[in-house]
Amino acid sequence: MKHLVLCACVLIFALSNATEIQQEIQNEIKLRLDLEACLIENGLNNSGLYSMNEVSINVHTKPGNEERTRKNGCFMACVLKKQNLMEGTNIKEDEVIARLYELTRQDLKVILGKIVRKCLEEKRDITQECAKCFSIFECIIQTMDKFPREHEHEEIVTTE
């Protein structure tokens, strides 16, 4: 009888883990499909997306990059909406943070969570969704640049 109970427990554990893994795979596939769809919807390809380095050195502020910047912001808004993380111009902060924690290494979760919350708060009043999303992305990159890893446990202060 003990062996039967043990086998049942192992089977339940294995099936629950398989279900979790299957859900993670489905989420990953949906994210990839959403990314591809949003690139197409916004007339972008991977080379049209700003890299973190380009944002760090303010390439997006150079004359002639207004349309690329707008498209990048609209791409980000599109992905957030398809992932059910944005409704209208309102970004669902708790859901964004939860997703961030799912996708981020353990050692970066706390600092990135603080940075994202800070930037979401600072940009909350922007009413145009493309501009809002790009401004949040820019804020996150610039804050990360100013906040080296040795300061991970320090408080991030919102400046307004």
UniProtKB/TrEMBL annotation:
Any one GO cellular component localisation term in the record: extracellular space
Superkingdom of this protein's organism: Eukaryota
Record carries keyword Signal: yes
Any GO MF annotation of the entry: pheromone binding
Main location: secreted
Segment forming the signal sequence: 1-18
Protein name: Pheromone-binding protein Gp-9
The organism of origin for this protein: Solenopsis invicta (Red imported fire ant)
